[in-house]
Amino acid sequence: MEKLLIKGGAKLHGEVDISGSKNAALPILMGCVLAQTPVTLSNIPHLKDVTTSLQLLATLGGEIMIDERMNITVDCSHLRDFTAPYALVKSMRASILVMGPLLARFGQAHVALPGGCAIGSRPVDIHIKGFEAMGAEIKIEEGFIHAQAKRLKGADIYMDKVTVTGTENLLMGAVLAEGVTHLRNAACEPEVTDLAIFLTKMGAKITGIGTDHLVIEGVDELNGVDYRVIPDRIEAGTYLAAAAVTGSAITVANVEPSHLKSVLAKFTEAGCDVQIEDRKIHIDCRGRILKPVDVETQPYPGFPTDMQAQFLVMNALASGAGAIRETIFENRFMHVTELEKMGAHITIEGNLARTSGQDTFKGSSVHATDLRASACLILAALVAEGQTHVEQIYHIDRGYELIEEKFHRLGADIQRLSQ
Ligand SMILES: CC(=O)N[C@H]1[C@@H](OP(=O)(O)OP(=O)(O)OC[C@H]2O[C@@H](n3ccc(=O)[nH]c3=O)[C@H](O)[C@@H]2O)O[C@H](CO)[C@@H](O)[C@@H]1O
Ligand SMILES: C=C(OP(=O)(O)O)C(=O)O
């Protein structure tokens, strides 16, 4: 098993290139199942979750080609299998996103039930209810969701909760359905919008893109296109937070600043100087003591839950008391115990994490419990006195491309060790 060894105390400087978005790339890769002809994707990040998605597409009979510039061509013209096995679904919950495309194009999908995972129970009831409303017959047997429909039918669907992958799955079902589908209370995350734009380029008819009411007029077929996925706003936010905690000035490049409005507002409130220049964000936190911020995670355009752990580290170091409320996932404070091992003082009251500020971190041996938890431990390690070993880093490889290389180039003392 690999781990990261980080020696704290270095200031960061320079520019870091942001990779393509994991959460946009995964649904778009699954969306390739909808196309009769090959799709070529660029700006796909090199991540464990992308490898898992490609494995899943290959299991279904998709042909995958990767060129020297890392463009990925996915040819799903001859799929022969409609089952997403547990081995793949368990390592990546986003595998559930193959359900909509398979059901829409081939009239059947058999997807292993994604289990409960570290950050919450994460049910898929809204996905299932939505497909049922579109006429699918769904049975859950021996750990699998078996879905069948001669052809999905347009329906008026109100989703009880704002769900990102739920919206994406139903959207991909609706694009080939007979008639018109309304998806109400839809997620508006930039990754949902990116998927909708991709589907539109393939021939789908979607209006209301970027809003919470998507209207989809089903078409008979979709065809391959070339498509570039959006930059990863959470990766960008994580590097900005690294500059904030280390009191550094860096630039994150190849980003879409408009996707980070709620996050940038909080960096400014924390006392960081943030400047936007086209597709770059400059952050300067040199000589500044962070101010505590109160944060409540919300669906987009609110503050993202995927940035909560990183801001908790910022608040722990800040000049006074701060509070972060997690409203999306019921168990997303697993990093708190690990941060406490490093010297943080955090009080959890239900879904609220209170910090008193002015904590100092000491190097320790800590375990990454989920993807963003790993990111926050790296941030804490960058400012800790001494050495930190971050174990179980397979979580981080699911979502951060070349993390140690990128931090190393920014001046951090970080290396990957094989045990
Ligand atoms: C691959 C991907 O894009 N992952 C992102 C996606 O996860 P994911 O799409 O899994 O998260 P959802 O938006 O679906 O979850 C939001 C809330 O709705 C609940 N829910 C969801 C579906 C359902 O059928 N029933 C139900 O109750 C969930 O348990 C959670 O409490 O959005 C999350 C919230 O922005 C992000 O943290 C994840 O990084
Ligand atoms: C929770 C996350 O991802 P996933 O939904 O793939 O588990 C995340 O990206 O922080």
TrEMBL record:
CDD domains membership: UdpNAET
* Residue ranges constituting the Enolpyruvate transferase domain according to the UniProt record: 7-406
Which residues are UDP-N-acetyl-alpha-D-glucosamine-binding?
Answer: 93, 306, 328
Residues carrying 2-(S-cysteinyl)pyruvic acid O-phosphothioketal: 117
Gene Ontology CC: cytoplasm
Q: Does the keyword Amino-acid biosynthesis apply?
A: no
GO term, biological process aspect, one = cell division
Q: Which family does it belong to?
A: Belongs to the EPSP synthase family. MurA subfamily.
**Listed InterPro entries:** Enolpyruvate_Tfrase_dom, Enolpyruvate_Tfrase_sf, MurA_subfamily, RNA3'P_cycl/enolpyr_Trfase_a/b, UDP_GlcNAc_COvinyl_MurA
Which pathway does UniProt place it in? Cell wall biogenesis; peptidoglycan biosynthesis
Q: Do the record's keywords include Cell membrane? A: no
Q: Which reaction does it catalyse?
A: phosphoenolpyruvate + UDP-N-acetyl-alpha-D-glucosamine = UDP-N-acetyl-3-O-(1-carboxyvinyl)-alpha-D-glucosamine + phosphate
Name the enzyme group at the top EC level: transferase
The record's annotation in HAMAP family points to: MurA (MF_00111)
Q: Which gene encodes it?
A: murA
Q: What does this protein do?
A: Cell wall formation. Adds enolpyruvyl to UDP-N-acetylglucosamine.
According to its UniProt record, the EC number is 2.5.1.7
Which Pfam families does this one have?
EPSP_synthase
| Keyword set, alphabetical order | Cell cycle, Cell division, Cell shape, Cell wall biogenesis/degradation, Cytoplasm, Peptidoglycan synthesis, Pyruvate, Transferase
Protein's name in the database? UDP-N-acetylglucosamine 1-carboxyvinyltransferase
Which positions are catalytic residues?
A: 117
Query: Where is it mostly found?
Result: cytoplasm
Q: Name one GO molecular function term.
A: UDP-N-acetylglucosamine 1-carboxyvinyltransferase activity
Binding positions for phosphoenolpyruvate?
22-23
- In which compartments does the protein localize? Cytoplasm
PANTHER family assigned to the protein according to its UniProt record, in alphabetical order: UDP-N-ACETYLGLUCOSAMINE 1-CARBOXYVINYLTRANSFERASE
Q: What is the lineage of its organism?
A: Bacteria, Pseudomonadati, Pseudomonadota, Gammaproteobacteria, Thiotrichales
